[in-house]
Every structure is written in structure tokens, then in C-alpha cells.
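Notebook p. 47: complex prediction with thymidine-5'-phosphate.
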Amino acid sequence: MRAEHADAPSAPPVAGGPGRGLFVTFEGGDGVGKTTQAALLEEWLTQQGRTVVRTREPGGTEVGVLIRDIVLHHRGEVSPRAEALLYAADRAHHIDTLVRPALARGEIVIQDRYLDSSVAYQGAGRVLGSDEVRRLSLWATQGLLPDVTVLLDLDPAAARTRLDADDKPFDRLEAEKEHFHARVRDEFLSLAAAEPVRYLVLDAARPPAELAAAVRGRVEPLLA
Ligand code: TMP
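Predicted complex, C-alpha cells below:
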């Protein structure tokens, strides 16, 4: 059952109340294949007649698209705390206007990245501190945690090879150095170890069809 984090201010009641709908997030470094897995899960659930909202952070709303452009493509400096606040602002608006309403309608939300990305990238990558960054996101979302978080884990060097093959210019985060991405990976693994019930950790080097089957295996029992 979805948790509302105890440290966070209590969430306003949503129509239908918490506990309806299902909130699944995909996490991991850049180039690990989250988008592919999110799409495969959506396809499978839709075939079962489920109503799915597939979305992402940053950029899942109109406001979010503007924020995404700043955090990923601004050419000058963005201070680390400003970056953390921008991701949190995107998240606050996204959860309030899109995700909570969908969950309240009993729908399944499949989301590419959520608060664990902030803890890993801003908390560990930018060294702002995991606890503070997590608290910021919990404040922004009034304590909403996913039912399931799939972590696609991959060595950053292998992920970099995949990104290189895409032949697209790197965004601000992708362009960070190897040790930044190593810290991000380590933090994701620590987060998963600390919350084994919420997290499913998969080796992203496995074939996409195998990964998709593992994800379905985790989600299916929660659909009843
Ligand atoms: P993506 O949509 O291609 O995954 O790109 C989003 C980038 O933003 C990715 O490099 C991870 C980064 N990011 C953060 O640094 N903090 C966050 O809270 C989120 C959601 C993403």
C-alpha cells in the first residue's frame, strides 16, 4: 500500500482517498533504459484494460516543460540549491495537478523518475545531502511515496556507451563527470537497500524483454 511519509505534513484528502490507484516509478542513471521499460509496462497494463497515465519528471506538465528546459538546457550556471528547488517545484506541481488526481480516480501512474532521482542527483551527485533533499521533496509532494520503484542499475561507463550511441548532445546532468554518476549510482543502490519493500532492483544489462517480465511479476500481484 502506498505510504505517506511520516515526516511530511499530512496530505490533503484526495477524492476516493489514498490507497486507490497504483503509483509505479522507474529510477536509475542516464541511459539505463527506464523509458523503454515504462513504455513496455504501459503497453501490458493497457492490454489488460487498465487505465494508465504515463508521465515523467521533470516535464510532466506545462509548467514542468518550462522547468525541464532550465534544468537540462540552461547554458550558464545554475547553483546546486537552485537546481534542487527547480526539480522540487516541478515535482510539487506535477504531483498536485496530475498524479494525485489520477491516483484518486483509481488509475495506474507509471512515472519516469521521482523523488529518489533528486536524492541521488542533487543529494549525492551535487553533494547537497540526501536527507535534506529528501525532506524538500516530501514537503513538495505532501509525503507521497510510490507503491513500487523499479531501479534499473547499470555501471555508469556502460550507460555512457549507450548514450554515446544515441548520438544526441548531452544535457547538463548527462554531461557531468564519471565520479558524479558513480555517486548517483551508489546512492540509488543505498536507497533501494534501505527500502526493500518499495524497491525492485534489476540489472539493466539484462535483455529488455527479461526486465519487462520481472517488472510485470512485481506489479501484477498489486493489481487485484
Ligand atoms: P531524463 O528525463 O532523460 O531522465 O533526464 C532528466 C535528467 O534530470 C537526468 O539527468 C536526471 C536529472 N534529474 C535530477 O537531477 N533530479 C531530479 O529530481 C530528476 C527528476 C531528474
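Notes: The domain at 22-222 is CATH 3.40.50.300 (Rossmann fold). The beta strands are 22-28, 52-56, 108-112, 148-153, 199-203.
Next step: compare against the earlier run before touching the bench.
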